[in-house]
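hiii so um. not sure if this is the right channel but i have a protein structure encoded as tokens and i wanna go backwards to a sequence. like what aa goes where. can anyone help
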């Protein structure tokens, strides 16, 4: 894992981001309107004229037998295959490019005082289990979800139609079932970490200094989670809940009517019956669109999170790997948290077997 990460350089990341963008823009996305032209004669007495008859049907007109074609479905298809895919790809590509640029300029953020030779516990086993259930399920959902959006343009040309079909059927089932693990992980992490994620006055100072992310030697004080992490936490909760609700509406179609109820409340017409045009297939179309938008926002945020937790910052991964972090790392990034542990006599310092050799030469205590 470490070797693979070390082998990834800025050029790889830039190429990957450009590939994602060009794959979407270059792909032959079918976004032409398939609706027929509006009927020339709007009067129903002309229904016996074939062209007007089919025109009306394709425009979504309802007759005695109900609605044969839901015209908004075409609006949805145009949105989904057009702007939605393009902006999604641009967002993803831009995020990877930004991270690559950040890495190019700032490099890996090092423990400035070197490895201390001592570790302290940052996250216990239940906390790490919750995190990894959330993380692994999200990565599976992200990849299988992106296959629904881009697979036809990116994977199918590589593996062929038959293989793509097999992969996509499996991916769809995986997506549906792993969703429950994601909801579990989300609830777990929420319960475990909410107490450390309420805004505090030191967060303002941290934000003013951008957490020292852009300048060496700057370490604004922070409690267990800094302001940047609190933003990640709340974004994960808000987008995660939103994705879960819209995903639930897709797993159990026509049952929840969440969008109809929301619009209905917003329009202030509580007390009347639900607008029927929203409770059917249009409800599902809104749910897909919203699920898609929220998922892409969350993927972009999580890309930044994964970057900082792996190649972006020395010593960070250990917090979620072994659960124990280097003492100097902790003092540099979460000084108020270390102070509190010291005051409560809960520091529980243990010798760091892995970095003993590095520690001897360079270590000086962080102030
Ligand atoms: C390979 C993937 C991932 C890695 C390596 C990773 C790594 C980490 C690390 C090292 C921390 C602790 C930071 C600290 O010590 O302060 C952390 C915290 C956290 N992770 Fe992850 N993570 C990954 C994926 C995810 C995913 C997919 C999610 C959400 C869907 C997520 C949500 C969180 C949250 C909410 C926190 C607490 C807030 C924060 O530290 O930003 N992580 N992660």
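sure thing!! here u go:
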């Amino acid at each position: 894992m470490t070797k693979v990460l070390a082998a990834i350089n800025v050029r790889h990341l830039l190429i990957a981001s450009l590939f994602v963008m060009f794959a979407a823009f270059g792909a032959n996305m079918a976004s032409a309107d398939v609706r027929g032209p509006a009927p020339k004669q709007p009067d129903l007495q002309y229904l016996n004229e074939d062209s007007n008859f089919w025109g009306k049907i394709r425009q979504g007109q309802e007759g005695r037998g109900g609605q044969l074609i839901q015209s908004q479905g075409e609006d949805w298809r145009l949105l989904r295959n057009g702007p939605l895919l393009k902006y999604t790809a641009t967002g993803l590509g831009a995020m990877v490019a930004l991270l690559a640029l950040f890495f190019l300029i700032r490099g890996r953020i090092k423990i400035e005082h070197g490895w201390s030779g001592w570790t302290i516990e940052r996250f216990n086993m239940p906390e790490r289990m919750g995190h990894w259930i959330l993380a692994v399920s999200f990565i599976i959902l992200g990849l299988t979800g992106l296959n629904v959006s881009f697979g036809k343009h990116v994977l199918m040309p590589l593996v062929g139609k038959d293989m793509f079909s097999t992969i996509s059927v499996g991916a769809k089932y995986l997506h549906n079932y792993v969703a429950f693990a994601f909801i579990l992980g989300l609830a777990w992490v929420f319960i475990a970490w909410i107490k450390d994620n309420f805004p505090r006055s030191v967060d303002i100072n941290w934000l003013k200094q951008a957490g020292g992310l852009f300048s060496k030697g700057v370490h604004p004080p922070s409690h267990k989670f800094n302001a940047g992490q609190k933003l990640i936490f709340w974004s994960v909760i808000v987008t995660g809940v939103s994705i879960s609700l819209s995903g639930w509406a897709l797993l159990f179609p026509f049952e929840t009517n969440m969008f109809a109820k929301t619009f209905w409340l917003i329009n202030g017409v509580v007390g009347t019956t639900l607008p029927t045009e929203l409770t059917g297939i249009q409800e599902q179309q809104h749910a897909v669109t919203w699920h898609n938008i929220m998922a892409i926002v969350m993927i972009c945020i999580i890309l930044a999170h994964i970057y900082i937790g792996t190649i972006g910052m020395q010593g960070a991964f250990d917090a979620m790997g072994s659960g124990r972090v280097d003492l100097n790392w902790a003092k540099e990034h979460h000084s108020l948290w270390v102070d509190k542990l010291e005051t409560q006599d809960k520091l529980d310092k243990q010798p760091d077997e892995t970095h003993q050799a590095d520690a001897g030469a360079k270590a000086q205590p962080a102030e």
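oh and Residues 122, 131, 134-135, 138-139, 189, 193, 225, 229, 232-233, 236, 302, 305-306, 309-310, 316-317, 319-320 surround protoporphyrin IX containing FE (CB under 6 Å).
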